[in-house]
């Protein structure tokens, strides 16, 4: 009431509560623009509002329904999505992150810091249906070392050389959003079938699920199902498994 109905209808009416976990409240905004505007103008107000009802809340995190990168200003290049890859079941929903044609093995700059990661990623891509020796393949390091580039390169290589293999590449944020959506719509069984029937699952920036208990639980069971059925997992992170905070030990053990 303090800020008025017009402000609420314009900016907050389509912001949804996702979950509260480990002192953090997670909200979902409809677009990147709305998310950024609310974060810049009202993040402290929202935090104080939640703290009024629960004084253990320490932070607010706002995610978005948009695919990563959809509002970035870049030189325009042709892009495709993994909606082209695999079964019609997976093609039925636009849940895949954009696959950038610039990120291939041919234009990856190999150097001492990433030589081993490049070789392992190449082995995964060239496995031709068999699981590589690196399963799961866990890529970690700081910004600029080529983790996302290698994941895109794996996807493009498989698409071009073994298109019958079903592959999903997506961010951990998008994985969480799709899981929460499935819970809300009572479509969890369908969600599980989609993610547990692929040949290769690649999840970027797994550190995003730190502190998200329900998402961690689903990821753990998805991970186990795929590994136990000799399906390939590729995961990226900004740090090593042992350095991940607020993530279950059983997940650390499987990653590391």
UniProtKB/TrEMBL annotation:
GO molecular function: ATP binding; DNA replication origin binding; lipid binding
Keyword check for DNA damage: no
Keyword tags: ATP-binding, Cytoplasm, DNA replication, DNA-binding, Lipid-binding, Nucleotide-binding
SUPFAM superfamilies attached to this UniProt entry: P-loop containing nucleoside triphosphate hydrolases
Any GO BP: DNA replication initiation
InterPro entries: AAA+_ATPase, Chromosome_initiator_DnaA-like, DnaA_dom, DnaA_N_dom, DnaA_N_sf, P-loop_NTPase
Domain AAA+ ATPase: 133-252
CDD domains linked: AAA (cd00009)
GO cellular component terms listed in the entry, alphabetical order: plasma membrane
Keyword Glycoprotein: no
Family: Belongs to the DnaA family.
Protein name listed in UniProt: Chromosomal replication initiation protein
